[in-house]
Amino acid sequence: MPTLSAPPAPWTAADLLERFGPIPLYRIVTDPPPGEATEEDAKRFTDGAGDPCELVDGNLIRKCDMGWEESYLEMEIGRLLSNFVRENQLGIVLSPKGAYRLFAGRIRMPDASFIAWDKFPDRKPPIGRRVFALDVPPDLAVEVISPGNTNAEMDEKLVEYFGYGVRLVWYFYPAEKRVRAFTAIEVFKDYREGEELTGGDVLPGFSLSVKQFFEDPFPPDEHSAP
After folding, report:
1. By C-alpha distance, which of 52, 45, 167 is closest to 108?
2. What's the CA gap between 218 and 208, in Å, rounded?
3. Which of 6, 53, 125, 149 is geometrically suited to a Cys-Cys bond with 57, CB 3.0 to 4.6 A?
4. How many angstroms separate the Cα of 193 from the Cα of each of 17, 43, 75, 102, 215?
5. From which residue to which does any coiled coil extend (predicted)?
6. Residue-range definition of the domain harbouring residue 136
7. Rounded to an integer, what distance in angstroms lies between the CA atom of residue 43 and that of residue 37?
8. Are residues 72 and 56 located together in one domain of the fold?
9. Which pLDDT score is estimated for 225?
């Protein structure tokens, strides 16, 4: 997988700006120093009280802060996917802390992901082995786009995902109530309310209204039957 050349550690502010562009500075972890972070550091942040962090060229990049609505959407996506996958015994769905080692020095954590059983050796996930990052690619990677994400960042992730072997990528845009489904880096279709998002060959039989993903949470009508 080709990567952008990284300057020698420690990185300067100019190095970070050139590499990552205008991402919010709070997302770049400064301890360990930029350019010196390892996979163990990413694991420590994710397992501990810190924020989940992706590892990019020796830098820990915090996952974007989300408002409650984006967080709710993230959970709904995971729930709806997991319900379908479990019912049809297709594989497993991982949460936003599910980490993947795309290649040496690169750890990514999609907001949700699906892995078919066939991706695992002997069709068995590494249960009980406390593996931090999986070396198998998910079949589906999902990202909820937040204000703190940049276009360059999401374009880079897309290249990495498909280079790693991901078959389908969904980008959810909460403000627009839109889903962009990629089947290749430059091959995509936008889905909006009133349309059905399908899983194609990756999730055969999966079809759900885009509106259902973005429905606002309301309590049951007090006059409705329990």
Report:
1. 52
2. 20
3. 6
4. 37, 38, 19, 33, 10
5. none
6. 68-214
7. 11
8. no
9. 52
Whether 190 has a pLDDT exceeding 80, the answer reads: yes
Residue 153 confidence class, pLDDT cut points 50, 70, 90: very high
Copy the structure tokens of residue 170: 């969904």
121 and 154 assigned to the same domain: yes
Tokens 């769905």 label which residue?
Answer: 93
Q: Where are the beta strands (DSSP E) in the chain?
A: 53-56, 59-62, 91-94, 99-103, 106-108, 112-116, 133-134, 140-144, 168-173, 178-184, 187-192, 196-199, 203-209
225 inside domain: no
Indicate if 164 and 198 belong to the same structural domain: yes
Domain with residue 210: its CATH number is: 3.90.1570.10
How are the residues of the chain apportioned to helix, strand and coil, as percentages rounded to the nearest 5?
Answer: 30, 30, 40
Q: What angle do CA 26, 108, 212 make, to 5 degrees?
A: 90
Amino acid at 64: C
Measured CA to CA in angstroms, residue 76 lies from 60, 112, 118, 216 at distances of 27, 10, 25, 11
Look at residue 101 and give its three-state secondary structure.
strand
Same domain (yes/no): 84, 196: yes
Q: CA-CA distance, 223 to 226, in Å (whole number)?
A: 9
Is 219 inside a domain boundary? no
Of 41, 62, 83, the residue at which a domain comes to its end is 62
C-alpha dihedral sign at 69, 70, 71, 75: positive
